Amino acid sequence: MTRLRRYALRFIGLGYLGVLLAAPVGLVFQRAFQDGFGAAWDAVTTPAAKHALVVTLIIAAIAVPANTIFGIVCAIAIVRHRFPGKNVVNVIVDLPLALSPIVVGLAFLLLFGTEGWLADLPFDVVFALPGMVLATIFVSLPFVVREVVPVLREIGTEQEQAAATLGAGGWQIFRRVTFPAIRWAVAYGVVLTTARALGEFGAISVVSGRLIGKTESLTLHVEERYQSFDYVGAYAASVLLAMLAIATLVAMTVFRPKEETR
Amino acid sequence: MLAQGLATAYLSLIVLLPLAALVWHAAGGGVDDFRAAVTDPQAVSALRLTLVASVAVALINAVMGTIVAWILVRDRFPGQSIVNALVDLPFALPTIVAGLTLLTLYGPTSPVNVDVAFSRTAVLLALLFVTLPFVIRTVQPVLLELDREMEEAAASLGAGSFQIFRRIILPNLFPAILSGVALAFARAIGEFGALVLITGNLPFETEVASVYIFGRIESGDPRSAAAVSVVLLLITFLALLLIGALRRRVTRHDAVA
Known about the structure:
The structure holds 2 protein chains of 2 kinds. Chain A is an all-alpha fold. Chain A has helices at 3-32, 37-44, 47-80, 86-98, 101-112, 129-139, 142-155, 158-165, 170-199, 202-207, 218-227, 231-261.
């Protein structure tokens, strides 16, 4: 390939990334700190902002472990067992990746809302934290499964069978043989799940009722600040979320190469 | 036994039960109500915009994603590993933040005087942002594995670089590009967060299906919201079946190679 064509491709590719990705994200950082670091700090330490951060962290702290355990169990079921409806399970696991978060939120609203089948629970689900947690679990469900399934397929069952013939029980095989083999895939899946759980907006915005200081997550806080023309507040909260995203990104690059060269 | 029982139970409770409630509510008013809800001109317009924009975004991704994957694999330039990591940013960045970042640079307060906010260009821009990694991340590994010897053989037989690309490289990458495009399409169909600030949600103009459904919920009309949701759910299902078929094709392709 000629040098000219290589430079042209490089220019197009990097230009596209720059215009679409790097420039907008960079500008938000600049806008957040244009009134000084103090103003940005004040904006993310208001009671509402702090509460929103806590809500976001609580949701992630429940959704991520739940989906990690389910993800491993489900991947084992898909790869190691035959059961009727396995193909259906496969499609359903992918559904949250593609389904609109608004549809997800509406589904929970209709299930637990005033006319829903589960309207008479002793505690509030809709317009309260449990609904937000459930919606987040829904949207971040596929990641661990999708990362673990191919690795489980690849490692095969020979080592597990060897362990079984040597007298190991099911749990022991999982702990000593299976889990060490899939642990990087699990870690990568957990990173993706966490990113999705921290950043969920659409589904939560439907089920939460957006009660400021009560059911407002950090993402909802960004929108609410923006709609109230408090741009420094919106940008500062965005930067906080962007920094969480960049931390996720770093974790992603740490985990992925190990998976590929394993 | 325990594993599949737990997996099925969890999926049923978290995914199937809410979706069943959605379908039940959508059907609650009978066929006529359902038809009225999904043929409402505003709903039809929103669904049409969603489909057209998602197809356009998928096609742009096919070209630009392949170019970016190409320069990440075949080119060498300073800062390449940073660019490589940056590609995943749209996966990690919350969608509302993505929308806000685009609005900041390409909205009314743009420092470069490019204001596309509240237009269909903004819809495309936001969807391109959130779907950016899909094609790159599906094409990249295939390009890495691709045997350079075939290209060298073609070159030694006198093929020009365009001919090599069209006859050797593209056929090898095609399944991966398709699979990335399908994922991008599926993602674009349901996007909400990135669109809500920058598109202005103008009915018949920039309102996509997700935003329309959200509007119906906010105006206390959950039944038509549910009806349009069911349509969107069906489109999503079709997209997923397509992805599944493509994925099988890609793996078969790998097995042969």
